[in-house]
Design goal:
Shape of chain B: elongated
Helix content of chain B: 25-40%
Strand content of chain A: 35-45%
Distance between the termini of chain A: 14 Å
CATH class of chain A: Mainly Beta
Pathway (chain B): Nitrogen metabolism; nitrate reduction (assimilation)
Structural class of chain A: mainly beta
Oligomer: heterodimer
Number of strands of chain A: 10
Radius of gyration of chain B: 36 Å
InterPro entries (chain B): BFD-like_2Fe2S-bd_dom, BFD-like_2Fe2S-bd_dom_sf, FAD/NAD-bd_sf, FAD/NAD-binding_dom, FAD/NAD-linked_Rdtase_dimer_sf, NasD-like, NiRdtase/SiRdtase_haem-b_fer, Nit/Sulf_reduc_fer-like_dom_sf
Largest interface: A-B, 41 and 37 residues
Number of domains of chain A: 1
CATH topology of the largest domain in chain B: FAD/NAD(P)-binding domain
Shape of chain A: globular
Helix content of chain A: under 10%
Cofactor (chain B): siroheme; [4Fe-4S] cluster; FAD; [2Fe-2S] cluster
Keywords (chain B): 2Fe-2S, 4Fe-4S, FAD, Flavoprotein, Heme, Iron, Iron-sulfur, Metal-binding, Nitrate assimilation, Oxidoreductase
GO molecular function (chain B): 2 iron, 2 sulfur cluster binding; 4 iron, 4 sulfur cluster binding; flavin adenine dinucleotide binding; heme binding; metal ion binding; NADP binding; nitrite reductase activity
Number of helices of chain A: 0
CATH superfamily of the largest domain in chain B: FAD/NAD(P)-binding domain
Chain lengths: 104, 815
C-alpha cells in the first residue's frame, strides 16, 4: 500500500490487548482483538485515561480509569456521550500493522 | 346482666378515649352512657390546636368524635354544661344547667386548664381575663387569638414551653411581631437542657421570634384592652395582645367538693380507681398516679385501657404502672424527641453528646449503668424510635455507643423520594441528580440497569445502587420493568452464577475466550472478562487457562493504576510487620526511581506511588520482596496489632496469626477484594470487626471470627460467625468462609453485601456446622487455589506477554 506506514507487528501486541505506539510523529493506542486490529487516539476524552491499558471486547475498548467504553470501528461512545478518533489499519501478509498514510 | 349507668365527666381526649375503649370491649351492651362536656363541641384533638392557630388546619379538621358519633353509639351528651356536684351517697351528678344523671360507675376526666399566673391587672373587674389576653387551651381560645391577631401588631406570649412556642409560631403566621417571655433561663426547660434550649432559641430567633429569658412578668398594662407588660426588672414591652401558656392546672374542684382524695390531682390506684369510692374512676390530666400527674397523651391511652378492662370485667388483672415520659414533637418546624431527665443527676450518669448548632442538630443521651435514663434529640431524630423504646423498656444499651446517636453501617434514615429535591444528587460519584434519572425514565428506559447504563448513576463506587433503583421505580410509578439480566452473572450470557458454573464444568471451558465462544456467540464483552476470569480461576485453579487480555490492567502488570496512568507498588508486609533491612531497601528503591509519593496504606503496608509501567519490573527486582497483591480482586492483606508479643493487654498472638493467614492466602483470587485483620484482644486496635474477615482473641486461646465487616464506602460491623479454639481453627474456618464466598458471591460483591444477602445463620450452618456436607470440598478447593497461587512479581524476570511492561512502542517508521 503506497504511503502506508508500518507502526507495529502483530507479535508486538498480545491477542486481546492494546499497546501505546509512537508512529508518524504521534501517539496511537493500537489494539488487537479476536476480530482484528484497530487504532484510536491514546487518551480517553473523559479524564485522559490510557486507553491502551483498557479491556477490549470484540469491537470495543473500555478505559481502565472509569469504564467509558467506545466502539473501535467508529470511535462512537457506547456508554458515554464522548467519542474518540479512530485510524484505519491494515495488516500485511508478514504480520506488519500498517497505518494508512492519509491518517498520518 | 342488668344494664348499668356509666357517667363520664369530661368530654376531652381522655373521657372520649375511655368511652371508646369501653365500647371496644362490648360496653354498648353493658352500659347506658352519659357524658358531660364543658365545651359545646364534640371531642377534638387538643394537640392539633397549634395547627389551627397557625392556619395549617381548620378547626373542623381536628375533631376525633363529631356529634354524630355520640348519637350513633347511643351516648347521651350534655355539652356546654360543666358538672358542679357529685352526690356520692345518691350516686348522682348535677351540672350547672341543672341536668342530673344517676350513675353506677362514674369516670372523672375533667382534664386541666391553662394556668394563669397571678399577674397584676391580668383580669378585669369581673375576674375574667382582660380583653386581648388569652389562654391557649381550647377551640374558643384559638378562635379568639386568631381574630385578635388580625388587628394586632405586637403579640406577647408568656411561657417558652412547647405550647407557648407553638402559639408564637401561629402568631407569626398572622403577621404579628412576636415576643416570647420565659421565666426560666432556657426554652422548653422541661424537655431540653441549657445547650439544647440555646440551639432552639437561635432557630426561633432566625424565624423572627424575639425571645426574653429569665424574665418575670409583674403586671399587665392597660385599662380596658391590654397595652403592654411590665416586668419585675422594670422593663416594659408594648403589645396589643397576650397569650398565656404558663402551664396547666388539673380540674379537681368538683372532686374535692365530693370529698375525694386530692393532692396535686385526684389520687388513683393502679386500676385508675379513686381511693375513696370504688364506683369512681379517674383518667387523664386530672389523675395523680403514684405521685405523678401526666400532661401527655400516651399515658392517657394506657390509663383508658386499664379503666375499660375493669369496668367491663374484661381483665380484672389489668393495672397501670405509670408511664415513662418520652415524646416526639415538632416545635415551629424543628423536630424534637425528648425522654426522661435532661441533665445527669447521679454520679453514675454518663453523658453522650453531639452538637452541631449551625445545623440545629443536637443529641444528648444520659446513660446510667448501661441503661438510658434521659435523652434529647433535635434536628435529626432518626434514632428516636429505637431510643424511646430502649428508654421505655429500660433495656440494656449496646456497648457501641456511637451507634446510639447515628446510623452506622445501615443506610441512614432516608428522606422520602417525594421530598427529595429534584437537583439532589443520587449518585455522587457521577453527579447524577434525581431529575436526571427522571428524564431518563421519561425517555423510555424503564429498568434500573438501562437507567444506570444511560446516566452512569450507581456505576462509580456502587454504594448508591439501591437508591438509584428506588428512584427509578418512583419515576416509573409501578411501570418499572425488571431487567432479567440483573440476575445474570455477566450481562452478555443469560445465566445465573450457578447455571454458568454448571455450563463451564460440563463443557470444560477453561479460558475466558472459550466461554464467549461457547455461550455468547463469540461476542466478547470487555467488562465481563475479569468477572469470567475470576469465576474460572475459582473453578479450575491450576487448570485455568490464563488469557492475559481477560485481566484488568492491574492484574496484567501487578500494580494499581493511578489517575495519570502510572502505578503504585505495595510489597508484602505480613501483619504490618517489617524490619530495618526491608525498610532500607524500600527507601533505596524509592530514591533510585524518584518515587513521587511514599505512603502508608490503611492495610499496614508501604505504598510507592507514581511508578511508570516500564519501571515496575526493575522496582520489584530491586525490592526483592513478594507482591502485596494490593491491586486485584483477591485476598489483599491481614492487618494485626501487637498481640501478645509486647502488648500488656494481648490475649492472643495476633501478629503471628496474621502472618500465617497472609502466607497461606496471598494471591488467592476472589469475587471482590478481601481485607482481613487479627486483633490480640477485644480492644480491637486493628479494627478486625470491620474487616471482610476478622479474628479477635478473647483469651484462653479462643478467637471470635467476624465476617462481613466494612469501613470503606459502606460501614458495617461484621457478624460473629463463630468462636473457635486455637489458631488452626481460625485458619480452617477462614478458609471455608473464603471459599464459600468465592463460589457463591456475585462478581464484585463484597462480603458485607454477601453476608447480608445469604444471612449469617445460613453461613454459620454451612461453614461451621457443615449442614450441607461440603466443608471437605471447600477445604480441598481452597487448597488447590493456594497451591496454584504464585508471586506475580516473578514476571519481572520472565515477562508473560510481548511488551508487557512497555510504556510506549516506537515504530521504526519504515513504509
Amino acid at each position: 500500500m503506497a504511503g502506508a506506514i508500518r507502526i507495529a507487528h502483530l507479535s508486538d501486541i498480545p491477542e486481546g490487548e492494546g499497546r501505546l505506539v509512537e508512529a508518524a510523529g504521534m501517539h496511537l493506542a493500537v489494539f488487537r482483538t479476536r476480530a482484528g486490529v484497530f487504532a484510536t487516539q491514546p487518551e480517553c476524552p473523559h479524564r485522559q485515561g490510557p486507553l491502551a491499558d483498557g479491556l477490549t471486547g470484540t469491537h470495543t475498548i473500555m478505559c481502565p480509569l472509569h469504564d467509558r467504553t467506545y466502539d473501535l470501528r467508529t470511535g462512537a461512545g457506547v456508554n458515554t456521550e464522548c467519542s474518540i478518533t479512530t485510524y484505519p489499519l491494515t495488516v500485511g501478509e508478514d504480520g506488519a500493522i500498517m497505518l494508512a498514510a492519509a491518517a498520518g | 346482666m342488668t344494664r348499668q349507668r356509666l357517667v363520664v365527666i369530661g368530654n376531652g381526649m381522655a373521657g372520649a378515649r375511655a368511652v371508646e375503649e369501653v365500647l371496644a370491649r362490648g360496653g354498648a351492651d353493658m352500659f347506658d352512657i352519659t357524658m358531660f362536656g364543658d365545651e359545646p363541641y364534640g371531642n377534638y384533638n387538643r394537640i392539633m390546636l397549634s395547627n389551627v392557630l397557625s392556619g395549617v388546619q381548620d378547626a373542623s379538621e381536628i375533631y376525633i368524635n363529631p356529634l354524630d358519633w355520640y348519637a350513633d353509639n347511643a351516648i347521651t351528651l350534655h355539652t356546654g354544661s360543666p358538672v358542679t356536684e357529685i352526690d356520692r351517697a345518691a350516686r348522682v351528678v348535677m351540672s350547672e344547667a341543672g341536668v342530673k344523671a344517676h350513675y353506677d360507675v362514674l369516670l372523672i376526666a375533667t382534664g386541666s386548664r391553662a394556668f394563669i399566673p397571678p399577674v397584676e391587672n391580668i383580669r378585669n373587674d369581673k375576674g375574667e381575663l382582660r380583653e386581648g389576653v388569652f389562654g391557649f387551651r381550647s377551640i374558643d381560645d384559638c378562635t379568639g387569638i386568631m381574630a385578635t391577631a388580625k388587628r394586632s401588631k405586637v403579640a406577647a406570649v408568656i411561657g417558652g414551653g412547647l405550647l407557648g412556642l407553638e402559639a408564637a409560631r401561629g402568631l407569626l403566621n398572622h403577621g404579628c411581631e412576636v415576643h416570647v417571655i420565659h421565666l426560666s433561663k432556657h426554652l422548653m426547660n422541661a424537655q431540653l437542657d441549657t445547650q439544647g434550649g440555646a440551639i432552639l432559641r437561635r432557630q426561633m430567633e432566625e424565624m423572627g421570634v424575639v425571645i426574653h429569658l429569665g424574665k418575670s412578668t409583674e403586671a399587665v398594662l392597660g385599662d380596658g384592652r391590654i397595652t403592654g407588660l411590665r416586668f419585675k426588672d422594670g422593663d416594659t414591652l408594648a403589645c396589643d395582645m397576650l397569650v398565656v401558656s404558663a402551664g396547666i392546672r388539673p380540674n379537681v374542684e368538683v372532686a374535692q367538693r365530693a370529698g375525694l382524695t386530692v393532692e396535686r390531682a385526684i389520687v388513683v390506684d393502679n386500676h385508675m380507681r379513686c381511693l375513696d369510692d370504688r364506683r369512681i374512676f379517674v383518667v387523664g390530666e386530672c389523675a395523680q398516679h403514684r405521685g405523678k400527674v401526666y400532661g401527655l397523651v400516651a399515658p392517657l391511652w394506657d390509663q383508658a385501657k386499664v379503666f375499660a378492662d375493669h369496668v367491663t370485667d374484661r381483665n380484672l388483672d389489668a393495672a397501670y404502672h405509670g408511664s415513662k415520659l418520652a415524646t416526639k414533637l415538632k416545635v415551629m418546624g424543628v423536630e424534637l424527641a425528648s425522654m426522661g431527665i435532661t441533665d445527669p443527676v447521679d454520679e453514675r450518669d454518663e453523658v453522650i453528646q453531639f452538637s452541631e448548632p449551625g445545623r440545629g442538630t443536637y443529641k444528648k443521651l444520659i446513660v446510667r449503668e448501661g441503661r438510658l435514663v434521659g435523652g434529647i434529640l433535635m434536628g435529626d431524630i432518626s434514632k428516636a424510635a429505637y431510643l424511646m423504646q430502649a428508654f421505655d423498656r429500660d433495656s440494656k444499651l449496646p456497648e457501641e455507643r456511637l451507634g446510639l446517636l447515628f446510623d452506622l453501617g445501615t443506610p441512614s434514615q432516608k428522606i422520602t423520594l417525594d421530598e427529595m429535591p429534584a437537583d439532589q444528587q443520587v449518585c455522587n460519584c457521577n453527579g447524577v441528580t434525581k431529575e436526571a434519572i427522571g428524564a431518563c425514565v421519561k425517555s423510555g428506559r424503564k429498568t434500573t440497569k438501562a437507567v444506570m447504563d444511560a446516566t452512569r448513576a450507581g456505576m462509580g463506587c456502587g454504594s448508591c445502587k439501591s437508591l438509584v433503583g428506588e428512584v427509578v421505580a418512583w419515576f416509573a410509578g409501578g411501570a418499572v420493568e425488571e431487567d432479567p439480566s440483573i440476575h445474570y452473572y455477566v450481562p452478555c450470557i443469560p445465566m445465573t452464577k450457578p447455571e454458568l458454573v454448571a455450563a463451564v464444568r460440563d463443557q470444560e471451558l477453561r479460558s475466558v475466550s472459550s466461554v464467549f465462544r461457547a455461550l455468547s456467540g463469540g461476542i466478547e464483552d470487555a467488562a465481563s472478562k475479569p468477572a469470567l476470569a475470576s469465576l474460572l480461576i475459582t473453578i479450575w485453579a491450576g487448570e485455568y487457562e490464563d488469557e492475559r487480555d481477560a485481566r484488568f490492567i492491574n492484574d496484567r502488570v501487578h500494580a494499581n493504576i493511578q489517575k495519570d496512568g502510572t502505578f503504585s507498588v505495595v510489597p508484602e508486609m505480613a501483619g504490618g510487620v517489617t524490619s530495618p533491612d526491608d525498610l532500607i531497601r524500600i527507601a533505596e528503591v524509592a530514591k533510585k526511581y524518584n518515587v513521587p509519593l511514599v505512603k502508608l496504606t490503611g492495610g499496614q503496608r508501604i505504598d510507592l506511588v507514581g511508578i511508570s509501567k516500564e519501571d515496575l519490573p526493575k522496582v520489584w527486582a530491586d525490592l526483592g520482596m513478594p507482591s502485596g497483591h494490593a491491586y486485584g480482586k483477591s485476598y489483599r492483606t491481614c492487618k494485626s496489632c501487637i498481640g501478645t508479643e509486647f502488648c500488656r493487654f494481648g490475649l492472643g498472638d495476633s501478629m503471628g496469626l496474621a502472618t500465617k493467614i497472609e502466607k497461606r492466602f496471598r494471591g488467592v483470587d476472589s469475587p471482590a477484594k478481601l481485607k482481613l485483620a487479627t486483633a490480640g484482644c477485644p480492644r480491637n486496635c486493628s479494627e478486625a470487626m470491620v474487616k471482610d474477615i476478622g479474628a479477635v482473641a478473647i483469651g484462653n486461646d479462643k478467637w471470635e471470627i467476624y465476617v462481613g465487616g466494612a469501613a470503606g464506602a459502606h460501614i458495617r460491623k461484621g457478624d460473629v460467625l463463630c468462636t473457635v479454639d486455637g489458631e488452626d481453627a481460625v485458619m480452617q474456618i477462614t478458609a471455608r468462609f473464603m471459599q464459600y464466598y468465592r463460589e457463591n458471591a456475585k462478581w464484585k460483591e463484597r462480603t458485607y453485601t454477601f453476608v447480608e444477602r445469604v444471612g449469617i445463620e445460613r453461613l454459620r450452618a454451612v461453614v461451621v456446622d457443615d449442614s450441607d456436607g461440603i466443608v471437605e470440598a471447600l477445604d480441598a478447593a481452597m487448597q488447590r487455589s493456594v497451591d496454584a497461587a504464585y508471586d506475580p512479581w516473578q514476571e519481572a524476570v520472565h515477562p508473560r506477554t510481548a511488551n508487557q511492561f512497555s510504556d510506549l512502542l516506537v515504530a521504526d517508521g519504515a513504509g
